[in-house]
Amino acid sequence: MNDVVICECFARDGLQHEPDFVPTDAKVALIDRFGAIGFERIEATSYSNPAVVPQFGDASDLLRRIARRPGVFYKATCANVRAVERALVDDAAGFGANEISLLASASDSHSERNLRRSRQDQWQNIADMVAAAGRAFRKVGTLSVAFGCPFEGEVSTASVLQDVERFAALGVRHVTLGDTTGMATPKTVKALFGEAIALFPDVTFISHFHDTRGTGLANCMAAFDAGVRYFDSAIGGVGGHPAKVKYGGGHTGNVSTEDLVNLLESEGVRTGIDLAAMLDVGRACEQLLGRQLHSRVMQSGLHPALAPA
Question: Within a 13 Å sphere around the CA of 175, how many CA atoms are in the beta-carbon half?
Answer without folding.
Answer: 27
